[in-house]
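I'll show a record.
***
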Amino acid sequence: MKKIILTFLSCGAILGSSYAQPQRYIDEVFTNFTVDNNIVYGANLSVIGASQGVPYIPTGTNGVAALEFDLYQPDGDTETERPLVIVLHTGTFAPIIYNGNPTGMRQDLATTAICQSYAKRGYVVANLEYRLGWNPGAATQAEKGASLMKAVYRAIQDTKSAVRFFRQDYENNGNTYGIDTSRIILSGQGSGGWVALGYATVDKYAEITLPKFLSVDPVTGITTALIDTTEIGDWDGYGGIYNMVNTPGYSNDVHMVCSMGGGMGDLSWLEAGEVPMCAVHCPTDPVAIYTSGNVSVPSAGLITTEISGSYDVMAKANLLGNNDVLAPVNAGNDPYTIAAQAASGIATGTTDFQGTVIGAPVDNVFPYLTGNPGEASPWDLWNAAFVEGVAQQLGFAPGTGTQIAADGLLTNPNMGPVKSSAYIDSTLGYFCRRIVRATNLDGLNGMEELETATTLKLYPNPTSNNLRIVVKDELILSVNIYAMNGTEVYSLKKIDQNSIELNNLNLKAGIYHCTVELDSQKITKKIVIQ
């Protein structure tokens, strides 16, 4: 019996639903799982002390320079190569208690429950620790924003180190963890969602030197990049004075990104040809805004401007064609997709936390409308006594953890195991169908089709009069468009570019075949003219 969140006007509205034969990678087909804790995948330098002028120190506890993960696997599995899900925990890029929240480490109850559920569905799961630390008390808004983006950036570097670690193990150590390196998925929760979305999109120096990440000296007028790659290293984790390179020489590639309430530092980061992505998100989220807006923290004020949440991110990813592979799922009738579509319809015309009116429903995002003002993570779960124990271990005054646990109930007043379990089930029920489609676990595409799907992007599709074509690593030689009866209705030769905009197509409404000739091949895709 599965618990599906179908209506969100009351966060307790949970309905049971039964299914046909359970399917591996979609449903929980295993009863038990195994866990191996504290596996080291790399080492790097902490910034928690450095933000107060203390020298950089190794990441980890008691001076151990270690980055670790916990590995979850389905118990009794006979498969030798399984998709790998890397789970990235929440915490606003600061340690639990220090961040003012009762959550913020990979051992959080909700995070471990997510890992267990993925493992029961047949995945190998790495519950990853990444570097924390940023300075919300910086002198200027630009410095605050850059400090937060640096925290995201360092976590991206660490996650890429982990991906390389698994590929090195696969190639050199006999695949210790039994993974399929052609199917690696990032699943980020809260701030981990920021990491997952940034991982998939930050790949250029220009993207980290946008105006909001620059500092201009008021006297000299000299402009300085606040994210300095000579210090912090590049987005793949190479170089930098205060960066340790881990497992160099292996691929960072991942194949799908799933975000639970994450955000993107700037929507311009998202470009055609990047991996498929999907999300769940509360429009009431006060930090990772559902549409686009500012990041503000009560104790520190405005942190940065124009970050984008799941609604705007998925709208653009869909428009660029990055999520075309997910179309069969969105056209299906599974209860999670239907629930997401129903919730999107309810959300249309309402406002997010900053007052932006939410537009028409968007595929690949599931809005969680809990009815609780300011709620961001209805899947969260914590134990007040445990939180108090953590606070005392960290040297905080007695009662600090108890108060933080109580404060968490202000936006999640009905927090508890039943609610958390229901939202986690709805989240993974929504995600896993899209993971299966994006990584071809359903076998609907041949490998050649999957390769061309990532090579060539046509958008918007459907369109009315304009079409943009973008290709990765090749040149477009010519474009021909044919009606369904085979009649050529458009032709353009001698292009020799890797992207082109076709304007004023003047075609009648209907379905057409667009054939794009590249250096090495011809690719034909359907386009819809409205």
